[in-house]
Amino acid sequence: MNLTFVPLASEFWRELPVLFLILEIITFVVVGIIILMTIKMLRDVNLYIEDDMIRRDLVVLLSSPMVVSVLSMIGNCMPRSAELMYAIGLTYLMACLYRVVDLVYKLFGGRQQFSQWLKRNDRVIDFATTPFCCCCKCWPKAEPTPENLQRLQYFVVQSPLVRVIIQVTIIVLILEKVPEDSIANQVLNGLGAVSAITGVYITHILLKMTQDYLEQFNMVVLFKCVNFGQVLFTLLRFNFDIAFKNWKIGYTDVMSSEANGMCNREEEIRVVTPTFSDSTLPETPLQIHTAL
């Protein structure tokens, strides 16, 4: 993101066309409804869930639609904050994915009791599951030992940690003025997508082993909602980034002539190289940097 060409919030709202202003108002209304529904669900959790540990997990999970919606709205209203708001929202969703897995373990009484239940019911860790059910059929099944269940947790918890590391690296690249369409940025976003899909894949393995038992607690719906939210939030951004940076999608009639002109100006500036006469040729890196 080149902040030089991203408008300030005041400029963005002052020049926003009427059609988009109406769409923004509709967005505010929808987000307001989501906030009210989330408050109602959190009230029900505090009233009817007695176990403190389970209640805390449910509060974090049920707050995810509100948190992600509010962060997305802030990024939409203040374009310069969009990258940061997206990173916070995605990290929160990844943390929710881990809390879902942790909540499943708690419902069985812990990792040791969970392992015993799986063995009593002849369940195994089957890697041939969504979204890799076709390419992982040849993988051997694993015994649901406490150690293997802990390894599954590690694969899920890596998602938010990897996302934080990637986002810090991207911010450093932005400060160093590395072009947004550089290979480094695309590789980092690709690694983030792989990390997120890995977390989703492991949760699907756990869901496949315990779906019939978890349905009585309505945990399957919670599982699928968190999974869907993370996949949507991750892959849509990843695919749009590739399309915008490689095929220049985005310069359309929807944008104003001023906005298109600014985007075109940014592309022109990227290819301009400074020229020096013999008399003004800089001799040191500092002089070169100052001249640029």
From TrEMBL:
GO terms for cellular component: membrane. It is found in: Membrane. It is a multi-pass membrane protein. The keyword Membrane applies. Its main location: membrane. Keywords: Membrane, Transmembrane, Transmembrane helix. SMART domains: Solute_trans_a. Pfam families: Solute_trans_a (PF03619). It comes from the Eukaryota. The chain crosses the membrane at residues 16-37, 58-78, 84-104, 187-207, 219-238. This is Organic solute transporter alpha-like protein.
